[in-house]
Amino acid sequence: MPIAVNGINHFAISVPDLEASIAWYERIFGFTVIQRSVIPGIDAKVSHMQGPGFQLELFQVPGAHPLPAGRSVPNADLMTHGNKHMALGVVDGPKAKAELEALGVSIVKVAEIDGTYGVFITDNAGNLIEVFEEGPR
């Protein structure tokens, strides 16, 4: 019998500048910091931010490797195993795209596949995010 889950609890990403990433997620998506901590032994700074129905956990670790360039390009990223992106649902994809552009966010790719609409962007650290129109088009 499968394990019953309640939904997504959190999504975690490593960033080079915790404070800059906190500011970016606050400004672009309205996330709020709910907890800060440090992981002993590796001196990783951690921030938990409340998002829409889940938490975003940001890590800044001294000496971490930078994000490989291909991980910021949707189709190239598919060629590397592992997590691909987080997707945030919106009611109106084209409207969200215009709002992102007005906030100064560069659009990496618009994906219209099988009747769906998604806008790929990167955060301030290059991590892929999809803003995905939910519901029928």
UniProtKB/TrEMBL annotation:
Positions of the VOC domain: 7-134
Domain of life from the UniProt record: Bacteria
One Pfam family per UniProt: Glyoxalase
GO biological process: L-methylmalonyl-CoA metabolic process
Key words, A-Z: Metal-binding
InterPro entries reported in the protein's UniProt record: Glyas_Bleomycin-R_OHBP_Dase (IPR029068), Glyas_Fos-R_dOase_dom (IPR004360), MMCE/EMCE_epimerase (IPR051785), VOC_core (IPR037523)
Entries under SUPFAM superfamilies matching the protein: Glyoxalase/Bleomycin resistance protein/Dihydroxybiphenyl dioxygenase
Record flagged with keyword Metal-binding: yes
Keyword field contains tRNA-binding: no
GO terms assigned for molecular function: metal ion binding; methylmalonyl-CoA epimerase activity
UniProt cross-references to PANTHER family, sorted A to Z: BLR5325 PROTEIN, METHYLMALONYL-COA EPIMERASE
Protein name (Swiss-Prot/TrEMBL): VOC family protein
